[in-house]
What does this fold into?
Amino acid sequence: MIQDFNYHTHTYRCGHAVGSDEEYVQAAIKAGYKILGFSDHGPKRNFSNPRSHMEWSQIDEYLSSIAALQEKYRGQIRLLAGFETEYYPQLHDEKVELKSRCDYLLLGQHSIVPETTSSYFHNNTDEEILTYGRQVCQGLESGLFTYLCHPDLIMYRQERFTDACAQAAEMIGRKAAETNTPLEINVHRIAKGKSEYAEGLRYPYPNREFWQILARYPVRCLFGVDAHDPSQLLRTEDLEIAKAELEDLGLSLIEQPIL
Ligand SMILES: [Zn+2]
Ligand SMILES: [Zn+2]
It folds into this structure.
């Protein structure tokens, strides 16, 4: 397998992932992972969304479930407990507190504002794409995040690769290099195959055009399974497919665990 550590794993607590915590651990061991990091969608203290992230009141139970599994599977796999979360400057202190409770935070900027269910998973306007780029840069500058998940998230339902997409990719590449923050090649959507867009068939992500621009910057990259189902951890071939998709871009892949 091309990478035996994965820091991007969800649990049922976010409301859109399935399986028990233990099933994720067992699948990771079976697949050959040496390190499995849980990074469920982090809670927002004043905003609930049962279909998108856990509640603030679930933090302790989440962390103790992973601690108990680490005891049970000690010697077989190393477990870590973190959160994947958005960054908003007005919630900076809350993110600092969240980080102090766990092993690490991953930056995953899914929505424009914290208090609604609005996400970037649609055909975004140029303004939305540039907002995404700016928000990601603010998150990278905060220094709170171990890495940036799916930098190309806005390409998920994006019909065309516009100038705004190129500008967002440039902003992110530059800031990731400046802050030395690794970028994730997200393989979550590989299993479902390519989808039809105005510009043809492609994976929702990783998106080649976006990565072509990121690759011009001195950034380090790693794969993230973004498992929402334990069986996704068994699909180690998806890492190879993603690698082949971006092979000729000369990306610098991280080979040793970063946590
Ligand atoms: Zn999710
Ligand atoms: Zn995720």
In short: The chain has a mean pLDDT of 97. The first helix runs from residue 21 to 31.
